[in-house]
Amino acid sequence: MTWVESLQAAIDYMEEHLLDDLTIEGIAQQANFSSFHFQRTFAILTDISVGEYLRRRRLTLAAYELTKSNTKIIDLAYKYGYDTPEAFSKAFKRQHAVTPSEARKYTGKLKSYNRLVVQVSLKGAEAMQVKIVEREGFQIVGIKQEFSLVNEENLVGIPKMWDEINGDGTDERLFQLNNGPVEGVVGVCVEKDSESIDYWIGTAHEDSAPDGLFTLEIPASKWAIFEVHGPMPDAMQKVWKQIFSEWFPSSGYKHAGTPELEVYSDEDPSSPDLYSEIWIPVV
Fold it and tell me: Which part of the chain is the HTH araC/xylS-type domain (predicted)?
């Protein structure tokens, strides 16, 4: 299957099993992606998490059934994956702005989220600045934290981790230690298993790790290095979306499956002239 076909196969699988107890691992297998890589790709392309997509679709179908049948609300709650009618009602109101009871006699509009279909642009409106280079393996020294992929806890925890290192001086220490082949401070995700990752904030460093820091070996790779221009986080998010919606489908390259790098300079992160990079291992 092509990259686009693989992603669509996973979405189709979700739709066919919306009422089942789905797992990220099971969904990702349909696309031949790792759990983390699928979750990351999906979120970049859609701006929502896999879990949020499933919640929205289930509550959309629940609303249709609620307004077109006499099925009891308690039965709908269990059917669409909620342990109690109270939990169902709370989630339903959050999405539709009315309770299930109100929706049953409601004549206004309920919020509907349609089934996703993957569409990509094979020729982007904006040119992407990218170069392909080969690098020998190198070492990163830094700090790491383990994050769960369950309920997308990593999406909340990683920004907090950056706030902490920017506030306690760790980022300045890492910039001073930078003497390897990648200039700047890097963020790296390393998948541990189907439900967790280690996230690293570090820098390329050729000597042994100083006290309090750990080492991570980055394997020799062919890298697609993308330029990022503009303030964080918007500029970085924009280029990630271009990579997955435009560059991968049209380039002929595939993700190598080893860790990606986000590379940051010590410039003002809010500057419109900020320069950063995204390094993706490819084959």
Answer: 8-106
pLDDT at 172 over 60: yes
* pTM of the complete model: 0.84
Could you tell me the CATH number of the domain that includes residue 78?
Answer: 1.10.10.60
Cα–Cα distance for residue pair 277/225, rounded to 1 Å: 7
Residue 123 in any domain: the answer is no
In whole angstroms, give the CA distance from residue 225 to residue 43: 21
SS3 state of residue 272: coil
Q: Would 119 be classed as within a structural domain?
A: no
DSSP 143-187: EEEEEE-GGGHHHHHHHHHHHHHHHTTHHHHHHHH--SSS-SEEE
Number of domains in the chain: 2
Each residue's pLDDT tens digit, 82-96: 999 999 999 999 999
DSSP 255: B
Of 18, 33, 16, 39, the closest CA to residue 150 belongs to: 39
